[in-house]
Specification:
Blueprint lengths: L1 H22 L1 E19 L3 E3 L8 E12 L7 E7 L2 E7 L4 E3 L2 E3 L4 E7 L2 E12 L2 E12 L1 E7 L2 E7 L2 E12 L5 E12 L2 E14 L2 E16 L2 E17 L1
Antiparallel strand pairs: 1-2, 1-3, 1-17, 3-4, 4-9, 5-8, 6-7, 8-11, 9-10, 10-13, 11-12, 13-14, 14-15, 15-16, 16-17
Amino acid sequence: MQKRLLAVAVIAACASINTQADIIGATAGAYMWKQSWEGNVQSGSDSVDMNDDLGYDDETGKSFFVAFEHPVPVLPNIRLQRTDLDISESNQLSRTFTFDDDVYTAADTVDSTTDLSHTDATLYYEILDNWVNLDVGLTVRVFDGEVRLASTGREGSIELDAPVPMAYVNARFDLPLTGLYASALGNIISYGDNAVTDMTVGLGYEFGIIGLELGYRNFDVDLEDDDDEASLTVDGYYFGVVIDI
């Protein structure tokens, strides 16, 4: 009798472990992002154009994420993502402008760096989980960057290092029996004259636990703080690998 009870307990424990394995999961991904930069920044009375004044063009960045989901209904799932988003250039000016109380004159060579790199911490709930997957939640995006200009005897900067709360929506549509899927992810906030919009759409193919994804990401930033302003767009295509366990 005791042996029977022990066997039943072992079977029940195994079934419980298998059930937990089905509903506790992790997803990780890594992307290479071909970035096109445009826009302008301002620290004072003059607007500085990213392309015409600073000579910005294209850059390649990386992004990594990991997400954990669990079976407890009242507790949110968590997603962490890091995006490298920076560009540096040296360019000879064709005009004179003022930036951060310094005057940069025509024919000066200006070294500049714009860094919008950030870390996202997202708490979200899974609303749908079948061939249509839908997650909604809140992202806190922490920027650790700046816009910096330097020439002989002059250097000025705008700091971009504030945490920004953003609405989070992540949807995925699986085409049954094919391994193909489409995805869309958005982080958005708008308040006063400030707005941050980060939208990603992709197409992927999944075989086993591995997925290959090709898509497009558009990142818009409009920030204003007294005489400091930044209106930037970074967009372009990406290729990524996703592992879902």
